[in-house]
Amino acid sequence: MGEEKSRLLSQIPAVHLLAERLAQARPGLPTVFYSRAARRLAQELRAEILAGKKVHLDEEEVWARAQALLTEEARPHLRPVINATGVVVHTNLGRSPLAPEALEEILAVARGYSNLEYRLAQGERGSRYEHVRGLLRDLTGAEEALVVNNNAAAVLITLNTLAAGKEVIVSRGELVEIGGSFRMPEVMAWAGCRLKEVGTTNRTHLKDFEEAIGEETALLMKVHKSNYAILGFTKEVSGAELVALGKKYGIPVVEDLGSGCLVDFSRYGLRKEPTVQEIVRTGVDVITFSGDKLLGGPQAGIIVGSRELVERIRKNPLNRALRIDKMTLAGLEATLRLYLEEKIAVEKIPTLRFILTPAFQVKKAAQKLTRALRKAALPGFAFEVVPTVCRTGGGALPLADLPSFAVAVTAADFSPEELHQALRTGEPPVVGRIEGDRYLLEVRTLFPEEYPLIVQAFKRLSHGRS
Ligand SMILES: *Cc1c(COP(=O)(O)O)cnc(C)c1O
User: In terms of domains, do 218 and 344 share one?
Assistant: First the structure.
């Protein structure tokens, strides 16, 4: 090791002294935060020195870094971010932001005790599923409804209840993998069912299903091709055709809708996505979908369908392990209540509002944000409104483009990647996106209250570099 490196290493402040000084400067925090921040700083400095980086060991700079690390240690790990990616249902960013009505209900129920499993009128034990059962039946037209932890759980428990030890017939074109680790063949295995694949990737005919039906067949299944589409020479069997086939052989039909929406997007000029109500009307026996995708509510799995089958699913002992919690129920009930008037739902539920905002309105919003950023007169930064295309995400409307507008940022001192990184690691974090050689702030997924926070973030960047 060079003499210079040894000299620098010996100048790294002692961890315990630094921790003490932090405790004096910002008292009142759990003591581990001070020592963790001090230790992290010492480790970082050491690594930088050994890597031959130019390290500033002047007192002021070291102290500023120590305080920044303490701030980082002291704040929650899970925290809000500003979604400027333009992907409305962004699984990595927490999917659906909730409507204020849902937030209020969650707070009210979580703050104290509730009638989660208690019938107030009778003074006797009730069921947690009663709180949303009626709403779901009214909104979807289904006979019966049940909610569980998420849609993966809904599919798992449905398959396990109705087909454990038996065969489930699915088209090869629908054996999907959905982000992370939800793969239909694996879910089948976990549910204890045998998957019987029929047809080919691009074409499956009704006769493929019919020929596969045998003694062991317990279910016919349809899976929404959430995150991809097969184009060109294709043929898929519709839910209605499967229902007719199922009736003929006395075999129930299950459909995993994935996103599942209650409003008809084609009425708002978007691509048609079948609504849950429409699928219920085709006669599919059990339908599963997510609470936090197009529905715009909290994470949940919703199961609707025939009284007899849903009741069997509810009684499956697995349900105890997959059950929905009270905060989720409170948020889900409030979200579903908004759907009782579609006009209210599309206005109040952020996911719906973001998807349905017309391009000209997004453009106006982008102009507003651009004006605010320019007004801050940040040296070295330039802002410009540009047309873009957004996606709904979350495995919904996979091919539907949402014409949109973004604020393109160019900076004298930052490459697009540097800008991306700096904004992501600020507080609050701003997550935009890079397209080609431009950094973009997509405006479709922003709440207007976030504009001043974005301006602040750029001000900090601007000061940081000057
Ligand atoms: C998203 C999705 C799932 C998983 O739903 P989660 O709510 O994320 O558990 C299952 N099936 C399909 C078709 C999906 O799109």
Answer: yes
Q: pLDDT (tens digit, 9 = 90+) per residue, 332-371?
A: 999 999 999 999 999 999 999 999 999 999 999 999 999 9
The alpha carbon of 44 and the centre of ligand 1 are apart by a number of angstroms equal to 40
The conformation of residue 11, written as its DSSP 8-state character, comes to T
Ligand 1: which residue has its CA nearest to atom 11?
258
Which residue's CA is the closest to the ligand 1 atom numbered 2? 258
Task: Tell me, yes or no, whether 321 and 415 share the same domain.
Answer: no
The band of 185, judged by pLDDT with boundaries at 50, 70 and 90, is confident
Which H or E run includes 288?
strand 286-290
Q: What percent of the chain has pLDDT over 70?
A: 96
Q: What is the pLDDT of residue 133?
A: 98
Q: What is the pTM of this model?
A: 0.93
| Boundary-marking domain end, from 318, 348, 378 | 348
Amino acid at 112: G
302 shares its domain with 337: yes
Kindly give the number of the ligand 1 atom that is closest to the alpha carbon of 257.
13
The two three-digit tokens of residue 445, written as one number:
């997924």
Using CB distances shorter than 6 Å, the residues near ligand 1 are 150-152, 155, 176, 178, 182, 223-224, 226, 256, 258-259, 290, 301, 395
Structural domains in the chain (count) = 3
| Residue 66: closest CA among 39, 43, 46, 41 | 41
Q: What is the pLDDT of residues 136-169, one digit of tens each?
A: 999 999 999 999 999 999 999 999 999 999 999 9
Q: Which of 178, 221, 292 to mutate to test the pocket of ligand 1 (most atoms within 8 A of CB)?
A: 178
* CA 445 / ligand 1 centre spacing (Å): 22
| CATH code (residue 387) | 3.90.1150.180
CA dist., res. 13 & res. 41, Å (int)? 9
* DSSP tag of 14: P
| Cα of 161 from ligand 1 centre, angstroms | 18
Residues 373 and 336 grouped into a single domain: no
Where residue 315 sits, what CATH number does that domain have? 3.40.640.10
For range 393-412, the mean pLDDT: 82
Give 268-282 pLDDT, tens digit per residue.
988 888 899 999 999
Same-domain status, 14 and 155: no
Question: Does 221 share its domain with 300?
Answer: yes
- Whether residues 366 and 342 fall in one domain: no
> Which residue's alpha carbon is nearest to atom 7 within ligand 1?
151
State the pLDDT at residue 465: 62
Distance 91 CA to ligand 1 centre (A): 11
Residue where a domain stops, chosen among 328, 348, 368: 348
Domain that holds residue 401: 82-91+355-465
Distances (CA, A) of 310 to 29, 140, 146, 320, 353: 50, 14, 7, 15, 32
Q: Which ligand 1 atom is the nearest neighbour of the CA of 259? A: 15
The preferred substitution site among 225, 228, 256 for testing ligand 1, maximizing ligand atoms within 8 Å of CB, is 256
Three-state secondary-structure class, residue 448: helix
